[in-house]
Amino acid sequence: MPVTVVRFNLVAPGASPAELAARYRAALEMAAYADEHGIGMVQTEEHHGSGDNWLPSPLAFAGAVFGATRRITVTVSALIGPLHEPLRLAEEIAVLDLLSGGRLVTVAGIGYRPEEYALFGRDFRQRGRLQDELLHTLVRAWSGEEFEYRGRRVRVTPRPYTQPHPLLLVGGSSRAAARRAARLGLPFFPSAHLPELEAYYKERLAEYGTEGWVLMPGAETPLLHLADDPDRAWALYGEHFLHEARTYTSWQSGGVRSAVGSAATTVAELRAEGVYRIVTPEQCARLGLDTLVLHPLVGGMPVEEAWRSLRLFARTVAGHDADRPG
After folding, report:
1. Which residues pair with 77 in a beta bridge?
2. Which residues of 34-69 are buried (b: 16+ CB within 10 A; e: fewer)?
3. d(CA 20, CA 174)
4. Angstrom distance (rounded) from CA 297 to CA 293
5. Cβ(14)–Cβ(295) below 8 Å
6. Which of 5, 34, 96, 297 is spaced 20 to 30 A from 314 at the CA atom?
7. For strand 167-172 and strand 3-7, is the pairing parallel, antiparallel, or unpaired?
8. Distance between CA atoms of 185 and 169, rounded to whole angstroms?
């Protein structure tokens, strides 16, 4: 049985506050439905200052999901570590870990958009140092013991539910990220399928004498939408997928690598790439992938269409009758 994931970033170009509120409520209802119908994970992420209303507060969203669910895991992939005050973040994650009974997974990335650093008055050139401080501080803070922080003695309470600490992975697509994870003995989450970076991380584990593991996207991990008629769905809704793909492309430069990498400029080109796929339930069941990621509200997708996709996914992939209670 593959790992099943429902992804939300709440993008909604041009939406009014009232329309955004309705989409946020719909996302929570979808998360509850996913929980009741055997889907294992909600995935969310963090971006700031985006003109299309990209979710900036994944931990707040995670808390709302936990309040609406009983079993499902929420993975924040990724949190932009250097934009957060370390002690405050340690408290926030500890509380969410307690509220959820250990259902929060945090991937701490370093980010790649200077605009986001400027928004919060952070020096983009210092992002490596800030990330090192953040990760080191989180692990020490969750011990519940006093420690030295910026020249003073501090203690963070409460201790989290998960011991020795909530699941924290280091995300990234660079050797610096892999070294950082290995040095701290934290698991590593490459942002794309990068076997050479996994090998480098394991070499650094041996060098530092630490232990860790890798959670890496597969060579093929498309973002999925289910429909009985994919041709019709591409014609009606393809622009929503293209919006997200082009947004990601506009943000990525230099050595940035992402599982959502696209060179498409048209819906037809995007469909041919296969990064986003609209498939029938039967096609989805035959994909043979280890992880299936549904993206129901992608790029401002109408809520009614998102629900159709999710219900098809629950019935045919997660193995539940979409019309019965969970």
Report:
1. 107
2. bbbbbbbbbbbbbbbebebbbbbebbebbbbbbebb
3. 35
4. 12
5. no
6. 96
7. unpaired
8. 10
Instruction: List pLDDT tens digits, range 129-183.
Output: 999 999 999 999 999 999 999 999 999 999 999 999 999 999 999 999 999 999 9
Per-residue confidence (pLDDT) for residue 325, from 0 to 100: 39
Q: Which of 143, 27, 41 is nearest to 94 (CA)?
A: 143
User: pLDDT digits over 230-268, tens only?
Assistant: 999 999 999 999 999 999 988 876 666 666 778 899 999
Strands 147-149 and 152-154, bridge-based pairing: antiparallel
C-alpha count within 13 angstroms, C-beta hemisphere, residue 227: 19
Query: pTM for the whole thing?
Result: 0.94
Per-residue pLDDT tens for 12-32? 999 999 999 999 999 999 999
Residue found under tokens 């050595």: 255
Give 42's strand partners: 6, 74
Nearest CA-CA partner of 249 in 275, 279, 278: 275
DSSP for residue 229: -
Instruction: State how far the alpha carbon of 46 is from the alpha carbons of 81, 275, 323, in Å.
Output: 10, 20, 33
pLDDT of residue 199 exceeding 80, the answer is yes
Which ranges constitute the DSSP H helices of 6-106? 17-36, 58-68, 86-100
